[in-house]
Amino acid sequence: MSNTLATLLDSAAAELAAASPAPRLDAELLLAHALGKERSYLRAYPENYVDAQVLEAFRWLLTARKGGEPIAYLTSKREFWSLTLRVTPATLIPRHETELLVELALERLTAGAASRLLDLGTGSGAVALALARERPHWRITATDASTEALAVASENAAALGLRNVEFLAGDWFSPLADRRFDLIVSNPPYVREDDPHLAMGDVRFEPRTALAAGPDGLSDLSRIVAAAPLHLEPRAWLLLEHGHDQGEAVRSLLSQRGFDDVATSRDLRGLERVSGGIWANSTATR
Fold first, then answer.
1. Is the pLDDT of residue 7 over 80?
2. CB contact at 8 A, 100 and 267
3. 77-279, what's its fold?
4. Residues pairing with 240 in the sheet
5. pLDDT at residue 1 above 80?
């Protein structure tokens, strides 16, 4: 393998063709990471050579990618809502479809109000930090059962200079006592535990506890819907991301628990992705 940037990229893209749906992009991301440069550098200086240390690092990254390891874990970063987030194997890799959860949360609350918002199962902090960036006057609380994930989320908040988020360790609502919020959002595990996709692609390397949720994928969604009214102010919203085929089931859970205005929003592919409702019955919380 010649070691100009142009020839390295051509050879790497060919190597990755059988392992990646976007081999050229992956090659660029990995080479830029090995160089400590932006991708634009590769296009600006295609004739430049790389030294032996960079070449060795790039070869290692290529081998790992051919073995299926996600680009996000190899580069330790992922873009979400125009934020560059650090991710590790302790966190789920943020997906672009989850940006719908952010959009809907921003629509549900008055922009100028000093609202209190809760993000359950925050992982890398993607949703909480996107909202914190858009609404610096909101007070945002984010929980996660994984202390490793919370450490990553806290690092991301510090790197982005976002100080209006607090991170609490605990399973779902357990660290919150009787605190109530104006809106609760969550992207919980919702994959069936026997789903074959758990053994495919990037998902193989992500924390299973952040993905799988019982035989029907609804275990954690059910727990959140059942307990959420204890932590919602009157007329507050609960918004939940779920699988594309779970909209009807989640709407049923919300309606049976007593939520009003229950509805599902579709993502950019037209798939049912986020369901929610308003908690209007402030007295029937148990």
1. yes
2. yes
3. Rossmann fold (3.40.50)
4. 186, 275
5. no
Most distant CA atoms of the chain, gap in Å: 71
Q: What pLDDT shows up at residue 202?
A: 80
Q: How far apart are CA 166 and CA 140, in angstroms?
A: 6
Q: What is the DSSP letter of 199?
A: G
Q: Which CATH class is domain 5-68?
A: mainly alpha
**Is the distance from CB of 250 to CB of 275 less than 8 angstroms?**
yes
Token pair for 206: 């992500």
3-state secondary structure (DSSP) of residue 45: coil
69 touches 58 (CB < 8 A): no
Task: Using the structure block, give the residue that is written with the tokens 């006592």.
Answer: 177
> Cβ distance 70 to 202 under 8 Å?
yes
The answer on pLDDT for 90 being more than 60 is yes
Of 39, 33, 42, nearest to 4 (Cα)?
Answer: 42
Residue with tokens 């204890």: 230
Name which of 181, 170, 176, 172 is nearest 237 in CA terms.
Answer: 181
Q: Which residue has the higher pLDDT, 282 or 11?
A: 11
CB 124 within 8 A of CB 152: yes
Those residues whose C-beta lies under 8 Å from the C-beta of residue 22, and which sit 6 or more positions away, are none
Q: For the chain, where are the alpha helices, taking DSSP H only?
A: 5-16, 23-35, 39-44, 52-66, 71-75, 99-108, 126-134, 147-160, 219-227, 247-257
In the chain, where are the structural domains located? 5-68, 77-279
